[in-house]
Amino acid sequence: MLKTLLMRTQHRSRLWAALLALCIGTTLLLLSVMIWWNFRELLYGKNQNDTLGSTFLIIGKRVTEQNMGVANATVFQQADIDSLKQAPQVQDVGVIASNHFPVYAMMGGKLPLATDLPLECVPDKFIDNMPDDWKWEPGSRTLPIIISSQFLDIYNYVFAPSQGLPQLSESSVKSIALNLKVGEGDSAEVFSAHVVGFSDRIGSVLAPQSFIDYGNKVHGKAGAATAPSQLIIKAKDPSDTKFADYLRHHDYATNSQNLRWSKIRAIVEVVTSATGILALLLMGIGTLVFILFIELTIARAQHSLTLLLQVGYSPHYLSRFMIQRFLPMVFGTVAFSMIITIIAQAVTSSIVKSQGLVLPLVPGWPIWAALVISTAILTMLVTRSISGAIKKH
Amino acid sequence: MKLSLQGVIPLPLREKVSVAKSGMWNSSVSFNKGEYIFVQAPSGTGKTTLIHILYGLRNDYTGEVKWQDKALTTTDNEALATLRTKNISVIFQDMRLFPELTAWENVDIKRRLTNTVTEAQANEWLDRLGLQAKKNSIGATLSYGEQQRVAIVRALTQPFEWLLMDEPFSHLDHANTKKAIDLILEIVKIHNAGILLADLDENNYFPYTQTVIL
User: Fold this and answer.
1) At B98, phi and psi to the nearest 5?
2) Residue A392, Cβ density class (10 Å: 0-12 exposed, 13-18 middle, ≥19 buried)
C-alpha cells in the first residue's frame, strides 16, 4: 500500500533514464581511474614495463679538441657515477663495460665473415628483451650474445642487397653459430657464439658480464683502461630541464631523440588527469539527475505523504521505506558499472599483452577504492535527500 | 493522559477571541482521560482549528497545549507520530481518506501501524457500519457517508486515550449515526478513553461529562 501511495507516480521511462545517467557517470569515473592506474602501472609499475616507464639513455663524455688523445679524459670515474646517481630524474645508472681483450669473429658457409668484434656488457636489469639463457660460466665454450636490432636492419636493408647476400630473419640469425677467437697466441681460446636476443635499447654486441670479466682478466691487455667510457642511465623524465642542465654542465653527450618520448608521456599524463576530471563531472551530473528524480517522486507523492503523517506514520518510517526502495537501485547500478570496468580491465590486459606489456587482469586497488568511496557518497546523498524531502512535509 | 490548554489563541482568530468570551480559547482548561467533552461552536469559531491544534497539525497559535504535561510545541515529529499512533486518534471533518486506496486498505493502512486490532475485527466493524459491499471500492468512488464511516472505523483501529472528533456524523443518516455511536462507545470504553467531539449544535450522541462553548 505504501508503494502504491508513494511510488506510483514514478514513470518507468524516467526512472530508467535517471538510472542510466547514474550508470554512465559511475562507469566513466571507474574507467577513468582504471585508465589512470593502468597508465601508472605501465610507466612505473613492477611488471617490467620499463620501456614505457622510463627512458634509457647511453651517455658518454663529449670528445673535444681539448681532451682528444688525452688518456682517460673521456672515461667515467666512480665519483662521476656517484654524482650521476644523484642527478635530477636519474633512477639508476649502469656501467657499460667493454672488452679489453682481442675478439675475432669468424663465420663460414654461405655468409663468410671475419672481423674484429667489440663486445660490451651491461647489468642485466638494463637489458630489454632479456633472454632466458643469458648466462655464461668459465669453462663453457658456448657463448650467448645479444646484438642490436639495428645491426640486423643494416645487414638486411643495406649490406645484403649491396653484396647480393640473402637477408636474414631473427630466428635464422639465432640459428647461426659464430666462432669467436679470444686472446692471442697460444693462450687464445675459441668460443661458439650464438645470438640469443636482439636489443632495441643498446646499439652494440652484448655478452654476459661474467664472460667480459673473465676475458679481461685472462686475456686483457696490460695497462688497458678499466674505467667505463659509457654509462647507461634509467631516467624518469629526461626532458626535465634540470636533467638537461646537468648533462650540459658536465659536458655529457647523449642521443636527444630519446628525450622526445618523455614529452609524449607527460602529455599522456595530462590527458589522463583531464579525463578523470571530466569523469568526475559526469558522475556529479549523473548523481544529480538521480537525486532530482527521487525528489520529484517524493514531491509528486506530497498529498499521500501528508496524509500518512497525519494518520500516524513517522517521518523516520517513511524515510526508511523510500531509502529501502532507492538504495538497491544505487547499489545495482554501481555494481553494473564495476562489472563493465572489470571486463574493460581484462580486455585491456589481453590487448597490451600482445604488445609485450603487462597489466593485471583485475582492476587495481584504486578502482576498488573509487567504487567504495563513490558508493558511500551516493548512499549518503540519497539518504539525506530522502530524509530532507520527507521532513519538509 | 491529561489534556490541558493554557491561553491558547489561534493566530487567525486573534481578533475574534479577544472580544468574545470563549470556554476554550484564551482559557486555562484541562480534561482527564475518560471524560467525554462536547465542544459546541457555531461555524467559523474554530472547531476544526481546535481539533487540528490538539492533534498537532497546526502550531500557529499562542499559549500552550499539553498532553500529559508535555507541550505540543516542544514535541518533535517522531514523538508526535508516537502520540498519534498510541495516544490520540482522530476523525476529521473532511475524512482524509486515501482516494487511491480501497475502503479496506484505508482502514488497514492505519491498523498495520500498531496491529492491536486484528483484520477480522476491523472487517467486522466495517460490516457493522454497513460497508460490507464497499470494502473493495476505491476511496474516491465512495459517497461522503461511506467515507465518513470508513474514517470512523479507521480511527478505532489503534490504541488511544483520547478520541478527537470533528463533526463525525455530518454525512450520516440517523440509523448509521446510531450504529457509529454504538461502535465508538464500545471501543472507547474498552480503552477507558476520553472523547472530545466538536460540532455545530447541541446533541446527545454521547453521555458528555462536560460541554464547552468554543
Assistant:
1) -85, 110
2) exposed
Listed by number, the residues of chain B in 132-161 with a beta carbon closer than 8 Å to a beta carbon of chain A are 154, 158
- Phi then psi for A115, rounded to 5 degrees? -160, 155
Closest Cα in chain B, distance from residue A328 (Å): 25
Comparing alpha-carbon positions, the chain A residue that sits nearest to B84 is: A312
pTM value surpassing 0.95: no
Of B55, B57, B81, the CB nearest to A313: B81
User: For residues A101 and A118, what is the distance between their CA atoms, to the nearest angstrom?
Assistant: 9
Amino acid at B213: I
In angstroms, what is the C-alpha Rg of chain B? 17
Q: Please judge whether B57 and A310 are an interchain contact, meaning their C-beta atoms are less than 8 angstroms apart.
A: yes
Rounded to 5 degrees, φ, ψ at A233 are -115, 140
A171 shares contact with chain B (CB less than 8 Å) = no
Strand-pair category, B162-166 with B88-91: parallel
C-beta atoms of A314 and B81 within 8 A = yes
User: Looking at chain B, which residue has its C-alpha nearest residue A9?
Assistant: B100
Kindly state the DSSP code that residue A60 receives in the 8-state scheme. Answer: E
Q: Given A1, A316, A317, which is nearest B109 (Cβ)?
A: A1
| Helix residue ranges, H only, chain B | 14-19, 47-55, 77-86, 103-114, 119-128, 144-156, 174-191
Asked if A312's CB is within 8 angstroms of B84's CB, the reply is: yes
Using CA atoms, how far apart are residues A12 and A20, in angstroms rounded to an integer? Answer: 12
Identify whether the C-beta of residue A328 lies closer than 8 Å to the C-beta of residue A19. no
Closest-CA distance, A315 to chain B, in angstroms, reads 7
Sheet architecture: strand order including B194-199: B88-91, B162-166, B194-199, B36-40, B210-213
Per-residue pLDDT of chain A (393 residues; tens, 9 = 90+): 888 888 876 678 888 999 999 999 999 999 999 998 888 887 766 655 555 556 788 888 888 888 787 777 788 889 999 999 999 888 899 999 888 888 998 876 666 678 888 899 999 888 887 888 899 999 999 999 999 888 888 888 998 889 888 888 888 888 888 889 998 888 889 999 999 988 888 888 999 999 999 998 888 876 666 788 889 998 877 777 788 888 888 888 887 666 666 667 777 778 888 888 888 899 999 999 999 999 988 888 889 999 999 999 999 999 999 999 999 999 999 999 999 999 999 999 999 888 777 888 999 999 999 999 999 999 999 999 999 988 876
Give Cβ neighbours of residue A384 (< 8 Å, ≥ 6 apart).
none
Does residue A314 belong to the interface with chain B, where contact is any CB pair within 8 Å? yes
Q: Which of B49, B85, B87, B47 shows the shortest CA–CA distance to B67?
A: B87
CA distances from B151 to A154, B116, B131, B164 (A): 99, 17, 12, 12
Given an 8 Å threshold on Cβ–Cβ distance, is B109 in contact with A391? no
